[in-house]
Amino acid sequence: MRVLNVAAAQMGPIQKAESREEVVERMLAMMREARAQGADLIVYPELTLTTFFPRYYTTDKAEIEQWFERDMPNEPTRPLFDLARDARMAMSFGYAELTPEGRRFNTSILTDKTGAIVGKYRKVHLPGHSDYDTERSHQHLEKYYFEPGDLGFPVWRTLGGILGMCICNDRRWPETYRMMGLQGVEMILLGYNTPSVNAQKNAEGPSKRIFHSNLVVQAGAYQNSTWVVSVAKAGVEDGHPLIGGTVIVNPDGEIVAATEGEGDEMVVHACDLDDTAFGKKTIFDFARHRRIEHYGLITSQTGVVLPP
Amino acid sequence: MRVLNVAAAQMGPIQKAESREEVVERMLAMMREARAQGADLIVYPELTLTTFFPRYYTTDKAEIEQWFERDMPNEPTRPLFDLARDARMAMSFGYAELTPEGRRFNTSILTDKTGAIVGKYRKVHLPGHSDYDTERSHQHLEKYYFEPGDLGFPVWRTLGGILGMCICNDRRWPETYRMMGLQGVEMILLGYNTPSVNAQKNAEGPSKRIFHSNLVVQAGAYQNSTWVVSVAKAGVEDGHPLIGGTVIVNPDGEIVAATEGEGDEMVVHACDLDDTAFGKKTIFDFARHRRIEHYGLITSQTGVVLPP
Predict the structure, then answer these.
(1) Assigned domain for A17 exists
(2) Within A6-111, where are the H helices?
(3) Residue B162: which of B14, B30, B280, B303 has the closest Cα?
(4) Closest approach of chain B CAs to the CA of A201, in angstroms?
(5) Contact B122, B110 (CB under 8 A)
(6) CA quadruple B143, B146, B147, B150: dihedral positive or negative?
(7) What is the CATH number of the domain that holds B128?
(8) Which domain holds residue B213?
(9) Which of chain A's ends, N or C, has fewer CB atoms near its CB within 10 Å?
């Protein structure tokens, strides 16, 4: 048994006007609750520190950069690292990263139980569009605000296991899980901000959106025999609704814990990393069963090429 | 609208003693029913013509080869091709293929509405094991009876769309769907024989097995915005139970038709191939969103390589 007691810390909405300090206060409250429940690890969602700003279009550099963190930890987030270290709790959260070179990424970090950052991931699969789109009911300008992650899909030996991260739209792409699965991942941490309505098909509402979210996460977990901790930022941000649907999924693809609402809400589950072993050595023993000689297009071809 | 009226023709059990002729009679009965319902295409399962013989171990060449077809069509299966042509119905079914060179494959074919074979697929992902295994509650000797398919994952322009095939265990591997997705597939036909109990974990019974089957098929459909027709051979073959769970899944990953039992049972659904367009041009527009520079391990590495 290698049990990790994991707290999936769903965040309710963060309004545009809310400060980092206000958000961190809410995060600290959840961390204290996680500590009371004996959590080894707390997982917050994508872009935890701010509203989901890619819904807003601006060309003003200062306005853009207000959403980004130049350092991590920094002044507003320091209390998180301090409390995590005191509580001997690892943590993961997402934020908008501005590098010293002026590059912008949608990033998450993972700390160990001393509060040291042991892993950084930059979102590879940016959804949405790079220019203002007059056809949409709301904007999704991730390709405008961020460049695609440049770190690939690393995994880290920490907390007695092998952990990886991905962010939001990454979860819809089986390549994401497989890249980590090929490195023996045992738990994937992921956060998301997912609008409750498809901006290009308004008939697609929250129940369909949560169905899709669960479907891809459960399949990714099963097909790579790994735990997945999938955490929402949820609720209505300045009139823009986001789905909840935070889940912890076991290596059999089953949901073992789920939130019920769209506010700050935590679910905790004792995840045995040894539960990943059976699938990895039987039906998903990659070494015996994968046939890479037939997978060529997956890495040689980005888009669709229709048959003659 | 490009509507294909598809009949998913689940087959009940086929006992070891049943002849090809008896099986073909059952298939013909379902084809007549499909014709009465106006089907454009009828899809039968993997190894439709025989019992699921990889559960039996023998070294006797004649005993092995009795399960295999040297030609297709051949004498026993000719009536299927004749009726399909008369009914102006395309069809797909699986069988054990013995090539003139003595090679053995787990194969399926697809005909057009004239009864001409337009596509052949040979199963790439063979599950199970290649030697008799004393640890298992039942054998699963596909790696003994067959070699892995050598045709890759082709798709075919037929029936007004782009169709592909895969077989049974292929459905658990996201690479299967993605290879076809990268060629613009609009409908994937797949048949399976899946034991109701995991031979290496007897606590894993039929409800879990059907859950896994649906999970991977629904995810594969959604992630590539394609229809999937997933057809079981079901029921108890000489004391060995197989799951049912035949489904037709739409490009949104939703089950739109499903069988209820474990016998010969058909479900028919009008599948509009144009329903695949929305997903392919938005969230799963591969050309805009895939990042092949970060997928290298998927084709360069077969098995798991653990981090240092």
Answers:
(1) yes
(2) 20-36, 61-65, 78-87
(3) B280
(4) 9
(5) no
(6) negative
(7) 3.60.110.10
(8) 3-300
(9) C
